[in-house]
């Protein structure tokens, strides 16, 4: 027993003037408080905090070594400490109407740590906006399909909004955004997507101030797959359409394009909508009462302004492949009601998906505008990136 107590005590207590052993009393200077001071703005328990620019974490007389900012669900805010250790900055805006807690640690020159814990709550927006996106989550699309966002409110802070949108592809390829006006943002690669590409859109708009006093209210991840590559070329002068899939010709189809007074746009156009049957009224696209066909079969939209590639049952069979008689659309032979699956129009409709490309050439018309439909491919890559 005596031996055991002596060993555990570390000192004989005989007053022999020893150093007290390895387990001796701490030196007085080891008890000094850290000189480092963690600073957090906004103040603890602050409310109605702005989602951008308000959160600032720093260190006086020391360096930050650890910073954690997270919401009540445990979602951590990305950020980084500066090289000199004096400032931590968030990588992006904060969410609106959200409570956050801050835990930050700094050390002084002697390595002594100082910590600070605070909470704050961001503002509750009175006015909000969202993005309506194309294509749909989980869809399979053609190689020409861009990611297209239409915002419910006009955006006056486009850089802030664009930072909150991320589009990635696997296999990886550079993807860039381009604004059309103040309410539309499209993303695409330099060339058509490769067949089989997996594309992911991440919207982190919650809390972004898109215009003064108007904040985003949307956090969403959208994924879609690029299917096989199908690009069809309409030669308006030859009255034909050549359909290529994965580089091989599937079929050459006789067509009728726009008449001399109502020519078809040239350029690369993406199929954005498909209808087994639809109504086409000339009054809705600037042609007055020239036509109103209530049962146009196998119709696929190529432009916002009304360009379609569709079935045509009212023109004589000899028209297709020999004359251009339409009001600007591309017509394929069909039957009324679209019941005959052997017609060229039915075949093309059944073999097309949203995002497939239809290229029109040799028409006596101008090139279609890039924002007229999902047709940003008609803009050079350099111009697109501006």
Structural write-up:
The chain is mainly beta and 386 residues long. It folds into three domains: 34-122, Immunoglobulin-like (Sandwich); 127-226, Immunoglobulin-like (Sandwich), CATH 2.60.40.3710; 230-383, Beta Barrel (L,D-transpeptidase catalytic domain-like). The protein is 6% helix and 40% strand. The protein has helices at residues 2-9, 158-163, 344-350, 381-384, and strands at 37-41, 46-49, 56-60, 63-71, 79-81, 87-90, 99-107, 113-122, 127-129, 131-134, 140-141, 147-151, 165-170, 176-180, 184-188, 198-204, 209-211, 214-216, 219-226, 230-235, 240-245, 248-254, 267-270, 273-281, 292-301, 308-312, 330-333, 357-361. It has a five-stranded mixed sheet with strand order 22-21-20-28-23, with no helix packed on it. A four-stranded antiparallel sheet has the order 1-3-6-5, with no helix packed on it. The chain is elongated and about 100 Å long. The model is unreliable at 1-24 (pLDDT under 50). This is Ig-like domain-containing protein. InterPro entries: Big_10, LD-transpeptidase, LD_TPept_cat_dom, Transpep_catalytic_dom. Pfam families: Big_10 (PF17964), YkuD (PF03734).
């Amino acid at each position: 027993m005596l031996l055991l107590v002596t060993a555990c005590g570390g000192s004989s207590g005989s007053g022999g003037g020893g150093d007290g052993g390895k387990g001796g009393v701490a030196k007085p200077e080891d008890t000094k408080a850290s000189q480092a001071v963690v600073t957090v703005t906004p103040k603890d328990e602050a409310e109605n905090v702005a989602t951008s620019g308000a959160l600032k974490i720093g260190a006086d007389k020391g360096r930050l070594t650890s910073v954690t900012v997270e919401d009540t669900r445990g979602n951590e805010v990305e950020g980084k400490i500066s090289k000199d250790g004096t400032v931590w900055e968030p990588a992006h805006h904060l969410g609106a109407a959200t409570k956050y807690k801050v835990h930050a640690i700094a050390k002084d020159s002697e390595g002594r740590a100082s910590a600070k814990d605070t909470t704050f709550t961001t503002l509750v927006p009175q006015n909000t906006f969202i993005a309506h996106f194309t294509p749909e989550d989980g869809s399979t699309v053609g190689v020409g399909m861009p990611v297209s966002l239409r915002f419910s409110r006009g955006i006056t802070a486009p850089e802030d909004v664009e930072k909150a949108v991320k589009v990635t592809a696997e296999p990886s390829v550079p993807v860039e955004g381009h604004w059309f006006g103040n309410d539309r943002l499209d993303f695409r690669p330099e060339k058509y997507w490769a067949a089989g590409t997996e594309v992911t859109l991440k919207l982190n708009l919650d809390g972004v101030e898109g215009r003064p006093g108007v904040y985003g209210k949307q956090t969403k991840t959208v994924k879609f797959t690029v299917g096989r590559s199908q690009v069809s070329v309409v030669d308006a002068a030859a009255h034909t359409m050549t359909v290529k899939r994965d580089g091989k010709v599937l079929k050459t189809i006789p067509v009728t394009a726009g008449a001399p007074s109502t020519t078809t746009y040239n350029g690369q156009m993406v199929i954005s909508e498909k209808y087994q049957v639809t109504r086409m009224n000339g009054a809705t696209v600037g042609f007055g009462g020239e036509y109103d066909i209530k049962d146009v079969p196998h119709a696929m939209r190529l432009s916002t302004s009304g360009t379609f590639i569709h079935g045509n049952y009212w023109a004589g069979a000899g028209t297709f492949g020999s004359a251009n008689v339409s009001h600007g659309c591309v017509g394929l032979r069909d039957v009324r009601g679209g019941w005959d699956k052997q017609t060229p129009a039915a075949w093309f409709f059944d073999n097309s998906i949203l995002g497939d490309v239809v290229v029109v050439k040799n028409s006596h018309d101008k090139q279609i505008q890039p924002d007229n439909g999902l047709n940003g491919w008609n803009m050079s890559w350099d111009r697109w990136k501006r």
